[in-house]
Amino acid sequence: MSYLSMNIGIIGLPFVGKTTLFQLLSGISGLPAPGTETRMVKVSDPRVDQLSQMYHPKKTTYATIQFTDTPGLDPKTGAKERNRIFGILQGVDALLWVIGNYEGTDKTPGEQVEDIKSEILIHDLEIIENGIERLEHAKRKLEKPEEEMLDFLKRLHQPLDQSMIPGIVFQEEAEKHKNVGGLNLFSLKPSIILLNSDETRFNTATPEIKQIQDYCLQNHLGWLELSGKFEMEMNEFSEEERIDFLKSLGLKETGIERLSRVVYEHIGLISFFTVGEDEVRAWTIRKNTCAKEAAGKIHTDLERGFIRAEVMTYDDLIREGQEKKLKELGLMKVVGKDHIVEDGNILHIRFNI
Ligand SMILES: Nc1nc2c(ncn2[C@@H]2O[C@H](COP(=O)(O)OP(=O)(O)OP(=O)(O)O)[C@@H](O)[C@H]2O)c(=O)[nH]1
Ligand SMILES: [Mg+2]
After folding, report:
1. 88 alpha carbon to ligand 2 midpoint, in Å?
2. Which among 52, 120, 201, 244 is most buried, taking Cβ atoms within 10 Å?
């Protein structure tokens, strides 16, 4: 998968606070202009701030996550509207299910989760059934990858038909079939449920909400609760007021900070850094990415001409205060292309083209 930043699709019933959250996340108020459903959001990371203080670079660049907003998904409006909404979400890497938990939402959180799930399953079942039909009625002998795809679709049909989110095993298997069909199945994308609560309901787990949390655990869905209202208030605060306010809620981080964390953890993303006089920068990669591929995130030339990388850890550097010290202590390691990059690694790539 080639991306500079993850693209997260926001989905939910009408009037649950999707656009309000989207604007909060991207730090812009007022209605977004038509055709601007996607915006970049800075992933704040205190490590980047620390590194920037150490190197005084000309430029400091944080990782970003993209968010795409959609109109309310209303199960009553039928296939056309559903397909339009999922059309907007084509190509997103993960879904954020926004559940409204405040006075005035039509449906309870549990009902909203059920609705979103069934809309996703209905959408996907249609694609899967069409796929099976097309492959089964092909007027020629199927190629091996097509046969495997047919088998995959048939197996995938079973859980969906029983109203179940297919397990993580299916997600992994789908990666292998990517080249065959290019199916855009949403039940296979990582999903995070975001409960958007008002002041009175925030942090009050009713039995219904506990049930949703259990559902998330059992089905490998991410979970996060935040309050759009609180986040909006905090936007107006000074740094100090913000810290006090968060403390009063028993929290350390703002909603966007917690959301970035959940997104990274749930999708299996990590950050590595590049440092220097010109720029201190955070990069996002999937876990288990090797040094050569990580270099490719920075520039394709760095991947093509990759020779080796010098790797240090953020913690070592902060503790010792400078790169020179790390070299003396043998904590600056020279690694080859297959070295697996870990979260918090700082890389100097040596390359030749
Ligand atoms: N009480 C309360 N109201 C909210 C909250 N978030 C949004 N609202 C209100 O709910 C209404 C809808 O908010 P939006 O953010 O536009 O909701 P949406 O999900 O984008 O709605 P659609 O795009 O029409 O589906 C607005 O009148 C908001 O003021 C919240 O956290 N608490
Ligand atoms: Mg909206």
Report:
1. 13
2. 120
Return the best residue to mutate from 11, 13, 20 for the ligand 1 pocket (most ligand atoms within 8 A of CB).
Answer: 20
Reported pTM: 0.89
Lowest mean pLDDT among 31-45, 211-225, 247-261: 31-45
Write down the pLDDT at residue 352.
Answer: 92
Number of the ligand closest to the Cα of 37 = 2
Distance CA 231, CA 240 (A): 15
Q: How far apart are CA 67 and CA 9, in angstroms?
A: 6
pLDDT tens, position by position, 320-350: 999 999 999 999 999 999 999 999 999 999 9
Nearest Cα residue to atom 8 of ligand 1: 17
Mean pLDDT confidence for 89-95: 91
Pick the CATH number of 6-266 from 1.25.40.10, 1.10.10.10, 3.40.1550.10, 3.40.50.300: 3.40.50.300
Choices 3.10.20.30, 3.20.20.300, 3.40.640.10, 3.30.2000.10: CATH for 288-351: 3.10.20.30
C-alpha 72 to ligand 2 mean position (Å): 6
Q: Which ligand 1 atom sits closest to the C-alpha of 196?
A: 31
* pLDDT one-digit tens code per residue, 197-221: 998 899 888 999 999 999 999 999 9
Burial of 172 (0-12, 13-18, 19+ CB in 10 A): exposed
From the number of C-beta atoms within 10 Å of its C-beta (0-12, 13-18, 19+), residue 160 rates as buried
